[in-house]
Design goal:
Largest sheet: 5 strands, parallel
Number of strands: 10
Oligomer: single chain
CATH class of the largest domain: Alpha Beta
CATH architecture of the largest domain: 3-Layer(aba) Sandwich
Number of helices: 7
Strand order of the largest sheet: 2-1-3-4-5
Order of helices and strands: EHEEHEHEHEEHEHEHE
Length: 228
């Protein structure tokens, strides 16, 4: 099957990380990734809903895509799939949230589950800050948030924080260090929320990682100030 991935908000590290995982997921399941202009049997779209304005812009792009691509089915994956306003699942459109990997597995008949696919580097990313370079890797540590900020839709889209086990993070970081990488960026919707669902916190994770991989530089992506 020919699959095209469309990133409607490449400045968002979390959205781009999800679509990079999707790129590897479809490849590992035997599908061919095709660029714009080539015939696609399936189009997978990732967008952003952090504000109502951003959600409206991304939904408009999805509706335009459905009009332009009159045959290929479309899957909206991630935050936009979890918290739509104008979009609805139908014959050609499926809406899947960030935690709907098992549904995606069933839709495409995957033999490699989405939950088993990770990505250390971001593909087709347009960062707000200068690119951290090939010597930096991203490691996802959590999804969701403990806060309820009025200006932000992330908790509504992703729910309460779900933290990865520290053992899994430690093993992934150690493997990246063994590859010669000099720095790792810990990625989450709010890194400050890490571990609060497990009786842990971000400081405990950082101390654990520093003890396991001394000399590795750690960068922390997005921390709610009150949780520092």
């Amino acid at each position: 099957m020919n699959v095209r991935l469309v990133n409607l908000h490449p400045m968002c590290e979390n959205n781009t990380h999800l679509l990079t995982r999707a790129t590897r997921y479809f490849a590992r399941n035997g599908h061919r990734l095709v660029p714009r202009g080539e015939r696609a049997d399936l189009i997978v779209v990732g967008g952003c809903v952090v504000t109502d304005g951003m959600r409206a812009r991304c939904e408009r792009r999805v509706l335009e895509l459905l009009q332009a691509e009159t045959k290929a089915p479309v899957i909206v994956l991630g935050c936009l799939g979890a918290l739509p306003e104008r979009l609805a699942s139908g014959e050609r459109l499926q809406l899947l949230g960030c935690r709907d990997g098992a549904r995606l597995d069933r839709l495409i008949g995957a033999h490699v589950p989405f939950g088993e696919v990770q990505a250390a580097h971001l593909e087709r990313h347009l960062p707000y800050l200068p690119d951290l370079g090939a010597n930096n890797a991203y490691v996802a540590i959590a999804e969701g948030c403990v806060n309820a900020c009025s200006y932000c839709n992330i908790k509504r889209a992703k729910g309460h924080v779900v933290s990865r086990p520290p053992e899994a993070i430690e093993a992934e970081v150690a493997a990246l260090r063994a590859q010669g990488l000099a720095s790792v960026t810990l990625l989450a919707d709010d890194c400050g929320s890490y571990g609060l669902d497990r009786g842990l916190d971000l400081a405990a994770l950082l101390l654990r990682l520093a003890a396991r991989v001394p000399g590795l530089n750690f960068k922390v992506y997005t921390v709610f100030p009150a949780l520092l």
